[in-house]
Automatic annotation (TrEMBL):
Molecular functions (GO terms): hydrolase activity
Protein name (database record): Glycosyl hydrolase family 2
Regions crossing the membrane: none
PANTHER family (alphabetical): DNA-BINDING PROTEIN (PUTATIVE SECRETED PROTEIN)-RELATED (PTHR36848), SECRETED PROTEIN (PTHR36848:SF2)
Record carries keyword Chaperone: no
Length: 851
């Protein structure tokens, strides 16, 4: 901070300012000494059968691994540990929670917790009158009854009905239980957490009809049958939009905001997963201090060597989508929130089959979508005395102590911390503000239960991709534009400067882009008129909206709407675009060349106001080449964990281009630099030397026992060696001797390419440690360690635990002893690793030197 650089500030003033900054950031009088740059993790407390001793032991492991904090979620229990279970919010539970917070402070770990157990909100103090309600239409009248849904995966003391999210007093009554629980708790978590909306079938509340009448200015009950209309009746469409609008408002006013207000009043910040809701995600995310998205399943990146679990069902779960993630980051950007989090790695692959090399691309995708506060999904509290594999949660990647990658877990965490520090210490720099026309969605038939649209992160094709808004957003993403989304409510906060730049108070934009839309609120039209009158540059994609929303007095309001729309369209700074690229360029919007090269990026501004790019190669279209950055600026390259370096530059048409080398799977930061580069151009590594010969293979550590050593003339999976090796999980060392020609030694820029590694390789060359290859591409710099004759290469490879679990599930399946759903596979069927085929393991190669 600059306060430390100024010599004229008295020391007490400096201390006071720092304290104010800490309190302002965390909003918590009991703020912990924590790092948000480090990744955090979900921490499942099964049955809350926890002890202080084991809590401390596991927190110490988290700290040594490079985590920044934990998120406590109590869930269902473990068979045989019923007497050890601690009821949620009881005296003993609060005692172990406070012990966790105190130990977290000692170790530099933050602690968050769910405002409940399992998900969604609900529990023993939710009466039938407060429980979620579903409405169906019978003979034109509402038939209302409780949905009967209970808290999913509830912990002891957290069982009960799901809360009605639209109830006028429901949230207040629900939180009263926490009021009394925390009244005597001196050590509190940093944050309260609200999981994704999963109140299935909830679409009504006791005073819904009255609220509708007050807000929409007509009687819904007299029009109720129109909600079931499938003929395209214009009035029915307007009624459906009004119905969804009312649900959205009640959800925001009675659920999201009261929970956030309560949390802040009690000294907590809030993390909120708004997705899955029937409301406008942008408004709901913005209600929280830390909006949180979710990366569920595996993206289909075209990265050579990147595996996707063949059992994962896209039809069942969908795939992660950066556009859905951008709803959380857009809300944060517009409202000036520093942190945007993500539940990360949910069902990335089947149990015991996830590698670090699979995790990194998913995190890179989150970074490019604006996420900067990673929460792994997750780790499970497990007694230290418990045999392998310990207690496991049914749906998460195991990031805990029993994971096959636990030894190398700090490598991933160092990478995430390095990236998140830059991403958190910079501000958004997006040119385009894209309006989210949610009313067009509400005009369509809902594809979710209860006749309402649930805006989930799983099947985004159900609500996002099929809309013109979704198609436009995909186009902008793929073609290199930096943009955020904006809701009807959020438009109200914008002002316009003398240059026509839109300013939310926290972020600025050169253009407001309105996707092709049919339905438009008159309140939003008024905001467009206000902004356009101030000089804002507004582009309508292809056409103007046609119909004003709201069924009450529609004909008269439509007439006024059409007149206002005509006047708006005549302004010089308003365009109906037939050439989107040209119109955006005319407004000063940058179309980044990075995307057209096949790269994915996010552009931000650092504390000096200089451009900062995080660039990830999540495909196979680019390896190296000349790229124009921004409007042709000079940039430096920051490579995670390697440091900063100049880049070779050339000038073309008055603009600079830089030579970027970024292999599929790699990522880097590019930072604007005012300095030119006079470094010599390093030619491509277009030569290679295959390392061949006899490999000595020795198994060094693992279970169930060590297979016999072997000699290999060609690299292959060690599961092909013998029956015992097919069940082995652990480490094996490969060694080989080789010579190199003089050409390889020139320049010391040779890279060791290990080819296909299953799964992590620690490498020494001539006794010098080259590092550990844990992500794609499995390459390490080797030139400094090479010599002409008698090179000795040693590679220690660690595989997954899946092959061992094939044997364990044949011999001792007793580890699967959990209540509720117990443990299932990625298809939600009973878990049985004994049926699996052996997974390739070891160094598969080919191994070669690139120079």
């Amino acid at each position: 901070m600059s306060v430390f650089k100024e010599k004229h500030y008295p020391i007490m003033r400096r201390i006071f300012l720092v304290l104010l900054l800490i309190l302002a950031q965390f909003g918590n009088g009991n703020a912990q000494n924590l790092s948000t740059a480090k990744p955090w993790t979900y921490w499942w407390w099964m049955g809350s059968a926890v002890t202080k001793t084991d809590i401390t032991a596991q927190l110490e492991y988290f700290s040594k691994s490079g985590l920044g904090g934990v998120h406590i979620i109590p869930i269902y229990g473990v068979k045989g540990y019923e007497k050890a279970a601690i009821p949620f919010l009881g005296v003993q539970w609060l005692e172990v929670m406070q012990h966790t917070v105190r130990e977290g402070k000692r170790l530099g770990l933050g602690v968050d917790m769910t405002t409940g157990t399992g998900w969604p909100f609900g529990g023993p103090n939710v009466t039938q009158a407060m429980a979620a309600q579903g409405m169906t239409i019978v003979d034109g009248k509402p038939a209302v009854k409780p949905t009967g849904q209970k808290v999913k995966r509830a912990a002891p003391g957290g069982e009960g009905f799901v809360l009605d999210p639209f109830n006028a007093n429901g949230m207040k009554q629900y939180l009263s239980r926490f009021d009394s629980a925390f009244a005597k708790s001196s050590d509190k978590p940093r944050s309260m957490y609200n999981d994704s909306y999963e109140a299935y079938g909830a679409n009504w509340t006791d005073d819904f009809a009255n609220q509708f009448q007050s807000r929409r200015k007509y009687d819904l009950l007299s029009k109720l049958a129109l909600l079931n209309d499938s003929t395209g009746n214009p009035e029915a469409t307007l009624v459906k939009i009004d119905y969804h609008q009312t649900l959205a408002e009640l959800l925001l006013e009675r659920y999201a905001k009261p929970w956030t207000d309560w949390s802040r009043a009690h000294g907590f910040v809030t993390r909120y997963q708004a997705h899955g809701s029937p409301g406008n995600l942008l408004d709901l995310y913005e209600a929280a201090d830390i909006p949180e998205t979710e990366s569920f399943g595996t993206s289909r990146f075209n990265i050579p060597g990147l595996r996707v679990d063949p059992d994962y069902s896209i039809d069942q779960f969908g795939t992660p989508n950066p556009l859905a993630m951008k709803f959380a980051s857009s809300a944060a950007n517009l409202s000036g929130k520093k942190l945007v989090s993500s539940e990360t790695g949910t069902w990335l692959a089947n149990h015991f089959k996830v590698s670090l090399s699979q995790i990194k691309p998913q995190i890179d995708e989150l970074f490019t979508a604006g996420i900067n506060h990673i929460f792994y999904h997750g780790t499970t509290y497990s007694p230290e005395k418990e045999d392998f594999p310990g207690w496991l949660f049914y749906a998460s990647t195991n990031f805990g102590k029993s994971s096959h990658f636990s030894e190398h877990f700090p490598l991933l965490n160092q990478y995430v911390e390095w990236c998140q520090k830059l991403l958190q210490d910079s501000k958004p720099d997006n040119d385009v503000l894209v309006y989210f026309p949610i009313h067009d969605l509400w005009a369509t038939k809902a594809k979710s239960g209860g006749g309402v649209h649930l805006l989930e992160v799983h099947h985004v094709e159900r609500w996002l991709l099929d809309l013109p808004f979704g198609k436009l957003s995909e186009r902008l993403w793929k073609e290199g534009y930096a943009f955020d989304f904006v809701s009807d409510l959020q438009l109200k906060k914008f002002t316009v400067d003398a240059n026509g730049v839109l300013n939310s108070g926290n972020a600025t934009y050169r253009t407001l882009l309105i996707p092709s839309a049919t339905y438009f609120p008159e309140e939003t039209m008024a905001e467009l008129q206000r902004l356009a009158g101030g000089g804002a540059k507004i582009i309508f994609e292809g056409k103007l909206p046609a119909t004003v929303t709201g069924n009450a007095d529609h004909a008269q309001r439509q007439k006024v709407f059409s007149e206002n729309l005509t006047q708006l369209s005549k302004l010089k700074n308003v365009r109906i675009s037939g050439d989107l690229h040209g119109d955006l360029a005319a407004n000063g919007v940058i179309r980044e060349e990075l995307s057209r090269k096949g790269l994915t990026f996010i552009r931000k501004r650092d504390s000096r106001g200089m451009a900062l790019y995080f660039v990830a190669n999540l495909g196979n279209a680019f390896k190296e080449g000349w790229v124009k950055i921004g409007n042709g600026e000079l940039v430096r390259r920051d490579t995670p964990l390697r440091g900063q370096s100049l880049m070779h530059v050339r000038e073309a048409d008055g603009k600079y281009e830089v030579f970027l080398r970024l292999e599929p799977g790699e990522s880097c930061f590019l930072q604007t630099s005012g300095d030119g580069s006079d470094i010599p151009f390093v030619k491509s590594r277009d030569q290679q030397l295959d390392i061949k010969g006899n490999w000595q293979l020795t198994f060094t550590d693992g279970r169930p026992y060590l297979p016999a050593p072997a000699k290999l003339s060609q690299l292959k999976s060690w599961t092909e060696l013998s029956d015992s090796a097919t069940y082995f999980s652990g480490k094996a060392k490969y060694s080989i001797k080789f010579d190199v020609p003089a050409a390889v030694l020139k320049g010391e820029n040779a890279v060791l390419d290990l080819g296909d590694v299953r799964e992590i390789a620690s490498v020494k060359l001539n006794g010098k440690d080259l590092g550990t290859a844990w992500r794609i591409p499995f390459q390490l710099y080797a030139g400094h360690a090479l010599k002409a004759k008698g090179n000795v290469l040693e590679i220690e490879v660690t595989n997954l635990s899946a092959n061992y679990m094939r044997l364990r599930d044949q011999q001792q399946p007793d580890w699967k002893k959990f209540y509720d759903i117990n443990i299932v596979d990625i298809t939600y069927k009973k878990f049985d690793a004994a049926r699996w085929q052996p997974m390739p393991s070891g160094l598969l190669g080919p191994v070669k030197l690139l120079y």
